[in-house]
Design goal:
By secondary structure, the chain is α/β, with parallel strands linked by helices. It has a single domain, classed as Spore Coat Polysaccharide Biosynthesis Protein SpsA, Chain A, CATH 3.90.550. A 6-stranded mixed sheet has the order 2-1-3-6-5-7, covered by helices on one side. The protein has a 3-stranded mixed sheet with strand order 4-9-8. Strand 8, helix 6 and strand 9 form a beta-alpha-beta unit. The longest helix has 12 residues. The protein is globular, with a radius of gyration of 17 Å. The two termini are about 20 Å apart.
Length: about 220
């Protein structure tokens, strides 16, 4: 299976690529290192929806840790006509209209070609739209909002089990532990170690620093 990731600019170094490839050596990585014309940063994940292949692909962010039996995420079944993502139980947005986190997608590219075409007709418009409408903040954001809106036009949106995924931000650990317990019934998300159900930890606010991964080495 192909896994597509975006690493453009100098915010993230090659160590992010090395980490993910070491965790998933059986898969072929497609690295997007140059932006498409008029397309910024994470919006370049749209490239995956233009691939002319008949098999599922995964698209994910690179500021993550893969934990425990994490390969189950990549093996999670998706049928044609379905679009798999993460339910953002930690509430990426206060707006109930939006439910996903853009850190992970799995889909059939040909199912999503209409989404790519829609975006590429007016890329500047869609890259501004969700910021201008107050759903998120700039300077670059809104990709996951656009994807969710477009998926809901034609596809069935499905989610990974909430207990498998988490947001990680050290300053908000108490709140995140409470929210995780309410969402999943598990007693904690992270108390010196990640709960054994967690397979995918998505970082925020630059908490994910590869040169400090030794602190997590017992679970990565």
């Amino acid at each position: 299976m192909k896994i597509l990731c975006v690493r453009v600019g100098d915010r993230y170094g090659p160590e992010y690529e090395e980490y993910l490839e070491s965790k998933l050596p059986e898969h072929e990585f497609i690295w997007i290192r140059e932006e498409m014309p008029n397309v910024q940063l994470q919006w370049n994940k749209m490239v995956g929806m233009n691939l002319d292949i008949d098999e599922c692909i995964c698209v994910m962010d690179i500021d993550i840790l893969l934990l425990n039996d994490y390969k189950k995420i990549f093996e999670y079944p998706v049928e044609k006509g379905q679009f798999l993502s993460i339910h953002s139980w930690w509430k990426d947005t206060e707006f109930s209209r939006f439910t996903i986190n853009g850190g992970f997608y799995k889909y059939y590219p040909k199912d999503c070609k209409y989404i790519y075409d829609k975006f590429m007709e007016h890329p500047e418009y869609y890259q501004r739209k969700y910021i201008q409408e107050g759903y998120t903040t700039g300077p670059v954001n809104g990709e996951q909002h656009f994807v969710e809106d477009a998926v809901n036009e034609k596809l069935e949106l499905i989610y990974l089990p909430s207990s498998w995924v988490c947001r990680f931000h050290e300053k908000n650990l108490k709140k995140l532990n409470t929210m995780y317990k309410e969402e999943t019934g598990n007693p904690y998300m992270y108390l010196g170690e990640f709960h054994s159900d967690i397979k995918f930890a998505h970082f925020t606010h630059m908490d994910n620093l590869p040169h400090l991964w030794g602190r997590y080495e017992s679970f990565v």
